Amino acid sequence: MTAPPIITRKPLYYFIVLTLLLLAGELTITRLARFTTTPGLPFAVTVDLVVGLPVLYYLFIVRRYKVGWTTVAGVFGLALVVAAGILPPAQQLYLGWFRKALLLAEPALLVVLVVRLRRLVHHYRLAAAIETDFLLNLAASFRAVFGHPLPFLVSEAAMVRYGLLGWLKPAAAAAQPAFSMHRESAFTAIMGTLLLVSVAEMGGVHLLVMRWSPVVAYWLLGLSVYGTGFLLGHLQAVRQRPLLLTATTLRIRVGLVWNFDLPLAALAAAEPWRDAEPLPEGVLNLAQQLITPPNVLLSCHHAITALGPYGLRKTTRQLALYVDKPAEFMQALNLPRAI
């Protein structure tokens, strides 16, 4: 598989930080006593939100990651929704002007979105005819339609696929050796406990904060729902996406976190690892996301790049894994023991 282009995450971080600062600033302004008595403030806040958010998106996402410029229209629509939630109902006069502009452009935008969506579905089906992995197929579809794999959207779509639609039966994999990572560990039990605690905490915190600030309470509720969705999606992804061994690669898939192909030619040695032994410095511990100590250590001839969520990349020469059947796994790799 061809390695994806190197992705710099700084523009994404800048976009997230500046967006949060913008939202916090505008929310603070709308809570000022003089906001309703100063005519220029509602107009300024409306422009900051409805124009500022799409501009930030264009500067830091579209230009840097070569995303289709038509996606700015979607961000513009989302900015209208955010502005409607931040601005008091009596101060949304100027917001109505932008809504009318969106309605005038809506037919053209709808045609563009339908065409892009049809192309996306077409390329996804082509990829699915060869490959069974949802994340790889979606990334390939985005690359074909938008010219970029869009790892941020792939990660979010994966969370929805496995978190909300985890009951869907995964595509049947080819006849390749597969090695699970959840059957003989406490991963499923621990994740189930975390999910129960998250749901209980979500309701309690929401009711408590509601007495202080309803706006903050709903923001915290949204973050809690997102976090719970990630936990559920990660649990289902680990269960449905085992490690796969092909004739030339070891496909490493650790839930929603790590997803990359490791060429077998790059592997130098494999050895069992005991819980009590500290890992050598520089080892990338992939078992951390399974809340389980590693039981296999892989060493490579040269530095390899591990791909994580949202385009995250880590370079290492050693990987620590947890596998349910470590002896069978190492026997299948047929590598020498590390000295």
From TrEMBL:
It comes from the Bacteria. Keywords: Membrane, Transmembrane, Transmembrane helix. The keyword Manganese does not apply. The keyword Transferase does not apply. The chain crosses the membrane at residues 12-29, 41-60, 67-87, 93-115, 186-209, 215-235. This is Beta-carotene 15,15'-monooxygenase. It comes from Hymenobacter algoricola.
